[in-house]
Design goal:
It is a single chain. The chain is α/β, with parallel strands linked by helices. The protein has three domains: 4-16 and 201-297, Cobalt-precorrin-4 Transmethylase, domain 1, CATH 3.40.1010.20; 18-101, Rossmann fold (3-Layer(aba) Sandwich), CATH 3.40.50.11270; 104-187, 4-hydroxy-3-methylbut-2-enyl diphosphate reductase, catalytic domain (Cobalt-precorrin-4 Transmethylase, domain 1). The chain is built from twelve helices and twelve strands. It has helices spanning 18-34, 48-57, 83-91, 102-116, 130-136, 150-155, 174-187, 201-214, 229-240, 257-262, 276-289, 310-313; strands at residues 4-11, 38-41, 59-62, 73-76, 95-98, 120-124, 144-147, 164-168, 219-223, 245-249, 265-270, 290-297. The strands form three sheets. Strands 10-9-11-1-12 form a five-stranded parallel sheet, sandwiched between helices. A four-stranded parallel sheet has the order 3-2-4-5, with helices on both faces. A three-stranded parallel sheet has the order 7-6-8, sandwiched between helices. β4 (73-76), α3 and β5 (95-98) form a beta-alpha-beta unit. It is flat. The termini are far apart.
């Protein structure tokens, strides 16, 4: 029986960004340097496949530092941690390896600088996300207010008589964030912003690549974890940009074949913490069932590379 023909357009760039690649490499090099086990506070990145792969090599993932035995190395996740976590590690003389993405570290530095200048910080982000918790934890609780929505921006009441600044989580939707920033700048014309864009280059590039193909596809599949902010934003961006339907899947096993069967043209991308192996698995699964005309669309080529922390290279 002849296979049903379908068109598949794969977005580029997609998948691992430099920060995720660095974080994974940090755990691997730490295992080489210190031997197993190496403890990792929280998921190193939001992807089950990546976490399970590192666990198989000897990484042990924990929620808090009190679960780490004395003299054992511990890696902080790519999302960053609060000052309290760093201080606790120093107090306990732990071998702490910081895998925080350098672009998140940049936001941490900005946040502390604003606080030093007595500015109250309006942080645009999602409550409960580890990156947001880490950034808010750079300063005292009364020095920062979380802004999640445009409505929050319209109604927030910062302390009277205090200068204001804003910062953003690095993995947000560019369009949603720009609307929130516009509201804040209209309400508080003197508000200080970052010197450069807080939303990271990889988030921007992946969202643009998805936007560029969304309007032409019946179905957009985004590979990523449910708790991955940048992957969730890609699903939203695809929907807003005109995709017939947009779905988040963790891997090929989660493909809804009934939905795929109805689509003539499928788009495919992956969040910044999803490895390329998962993309290849999905393509192979599609090719197994259908006659697939595969193409890749996207002009941007990423060349960013972040160095490993000195503790691993000295």
């Amino acid at each position: 029986m002849a296979k049903k023909p379908k068109k598949l357009t794969i977005a580029a760039p997609r998948g691992f960004c430099a920060g995720v690649d660095r974080a994974v490499r940090i755990v691997e090099v730490a295992l080489e340097k210190y031997g197993a086990p190496v403890f990792v506070r929280h998921e190193i990145v939001h992807n089950k496949t990546v976490v399970e792969g590192l666990a198989a090599k000897g990484a042990i993932f924990v929620d808090e530092l009190n679960e780490v035995p004395k003299n054992a190395p511990v890696v902080f996740s790519a999302h960053g941690v609060s000052r309290a976590v760093v201080d606790e590690a120093e107090r306990r003389n732990m071998i702490a390896v910081d895998a925080t993405c350098p672009l998140v570290t940049k936001v941490h530095i900005e946040t502390r600088r604003h606080a030093e200048k007595k500015r109250h910080i309006l942080l645009i982000g999602h409550a409960g996300h580890p990156e947001v918790e880490g950034t808010m934890g750079q300063v005292s609780a009364d020095e920062v207010t979380l802004i999640e929505t445009v409505e929050d921006a319209r109604t927030v009441s910062p302390p009277d008589g205090v200068a204001l600044a804003f910062a953003t989580q690095t993995t947000l939707s560019i369009d949603d964030t720009s609307e929130i920033i516009s509201v804040l700048q209209f309400r508080f014309p003197e508000i200080s912003g970052p010197r450069g864009e807080d939303i990271c280059y990889a988030t921007t590039n992946r969202q643009k690549a998805v936007k560029d193909i969304a309007a032409s596809v019946d179905l957009m599949l985004i590979i990523g974890a449910e708790n991955s902010s940048n992957s969730q934003r890609l699903v939203e961006v695809a929907q807003v940009a005109g995709a017939g339907k947009s779905l988040l899947i963790p891997n090929k096993d989660a493909i809804d074949w009934e939905v795929v069967n109805d689509a003539k043209h499928i788009g495919l991308s992956a969040g910044a913490s999803a490895p390329e192996s998962l993309v290849k698995d999905v393509v192979a699964a599609l090719c197994e069932r259908y006659q697939i005309d595969v193409s890749e669309k996207g002009e941007i080529r990423e060349t960013v590379n972040f160095k490993l922390p000195a503790i691993l290279t000295n």
